[in-house]
Amino acid sequence: MAGDPVAEKAAASVLKRAVELDTARRFTESLVCYQEGLQLLMEALKANGQDENRRVELRKRAESYMSRAEFLKKHIENEKEAGKYHEKIEIGANSIGHSYQKVLGRFLDEYVTKVEIEDPYVRSTHQVYNLLRLSELLVGSCPNLKSIFLLTGRESGNQQDMLDELKQSLAKHKVVLNVEYSNTLHDREIRLDNGWIIKIGRGLDYFRPPEGKFSLGYCDYDLRPCHATTVDIFHSSKVRSVSNK
Amino acid sequence: MAGDPVAEKAAASVLKRAVELDTARRFTESLVCYQEGLQLLMEALKANGQDENRRVELRKRAESYMSRAEFLKKHIENEKEAGKYHEKIEIGANSIGHSYQKVLGRFLDEYVTKVEIEDPYVRSTHQVYNLLRLSELLVGSCPNLKSIFLLTGRESGNQQDMLDELKQSLAKHKVVLNVEYSNTLHDREIRLDNGWIIKIGRGLDYFRPPEGKFSLGYCDYDLRPCHATTVDIFHSSKVRSVSNK
């Protein structure tokens, strides 16, 4: 077998993305890419048939990325502990690849037991579906999730019925959904009790309508074009206690 | 910082699953779990604050899993080359965690350019949605995908319109969808031109109807309970050439 050029190519492309994200100071995403790229590079190194010079070169490259990844990890930890971590992501108009999994997924873990969502627009059908999708992601990614708190605007219509159905469904997964209404609310943020706070400029409703009901992107939000919005990510128990009502 | 007991616990649980899958001869899935578990174990090892005895123990454990993973990898390669790879997965009635991503995802890669689907039941609305979801997964996971071929049963009604919309949408992603109809078809299989063949007993339609339109599992198929079915996985260019029409 003659090496694994595909693993090498894949590693190169993921690591290139890691460096781009690193330069853009999108550190948590960058770290995920460094780790993934390094794993692919290890695969390439394990493959047979590489000549020794090439192996030495790959190993050197791996070492430099590894030290950058370790630096980033420490940097994130330090900023978190100092309560001043901040990362900014610009979602471009009509860009794709921004499902809730991509935006939030890397912050969801065993430490999350409570999620607080403030979003004035969880009112119409497609907006309740946004909350359903987010809930599915939370249930699938946070094994110790106990409760979700939603603060949103009140709408006449069937908002209440839809949210009640979601509430009953979450209860079957042992997660309590509490909903409160405020029509003066304008903040949009998601607070996880592992310390991460994600502020999406437009709230959950940043996807464009689907092109059609049987078109790619109708089910998979990673293929759905987005409206332009900014995501700010913070980590701080201090920020959280201030912004709590 | 006192070690990382969470990474260690997570590693233990993923590696336990790897061994279970290994015992059940579900080798491709087992390999994914070994690799993931080993990465978590490395995380645990990297964390500070572990005493030296514990580190030696963890390192020993890692080595034994690593050698099993490498054995499996070689075993799968050998069986593939000999044209006799076969793996069987039983999906239990009402069990969850069997989205197309989970069943097929690990076989999708850069080598897939053509996907052939034989399934008599891509007819009604929810069945065309199954195909849409599978198409979204293929487009997202196979960067070199050029064409999808579907052989299914013909239905009066709007089957043709739905498939036409999907066809146009795939064309925008530079993927050609060709559909042929046969009402004598009874086989259900998905053939990838990287050599993998996945036969799902019930075809794509193995999910139970959702509990409600705003219930968990409506959007995320990993949370949707399934009907009982068997998945057989083969790898062989020989099998493929025989089963081609």
Describe the model:
The structure is a homodimer of 245-residue chains. Chain A contains 7 helices and 7 strands, in the order αααβαβαβαββββα. The first copy, chain A, has 245 residues and is an alpha/beta fold. The first copy, chain A, folds into 2 domains: 5-82, Methane Monooxygenase Hydroxylase, Chain G, domain 1 (Up-down Bundle); 86-235, MITD, C-terminal phospholipase D-like domain (Endonuclease, Chain A, 2-Layer Sandwich), CATH 3.30.870. In chain A, a hairpin with a 3-residue loop joins β5 and β6. In chain A, α1 (5-23) packs antiparallel against α2 (27-46), α2 (27-46) runs antiparallel to α3 and α5 runs parallel beside α6 (159-172). The longest helix of chain A has 31 residues, at 52-82. Chain A is elongated. The termini of chain A are far apart. Chains A and B meet through α5 and α6 of A and α1, α5 and α6 of B.
